[in-house]
């Protein structure tokens, strides 16, 4: 389960598989070639004058702490984002 945005960044950064697969509700999949996505990030940053790939707090090493864990049954209201889970081959669920 993805605990927060810092945890998600850590999982993406440490993924060694060829593809990053994000699975959302209603079986909607987004599959990215990990190396191509990393290369495209630099071009996107330049094109849109984005100074860094992420904020400084997300650049710090991720430390898993129990107090950051959200209740899986937590209601997110009208948010399109739900809890994430990490499975085999860097499969990320939203």
From TrEMBL:
This is Protease Do-like PDZ domain-containing protein. One of its GO terms (biological process) is proteolysis. Keywords: Hydrolase, Protease, Serine protease. Residues 2-57 form the Protease Do-like PDZ domain. The lineage of its organism: Eukaryota, Viridiplantae, Streptophyta, Embryophyta, Tracheophyta. PANTHER family: PROTEASE DO-LIKE 2, CHLOROPLASTIC, PTHR45980. The keyword Transport does not apply. The keyword Metal-binding does not apply.
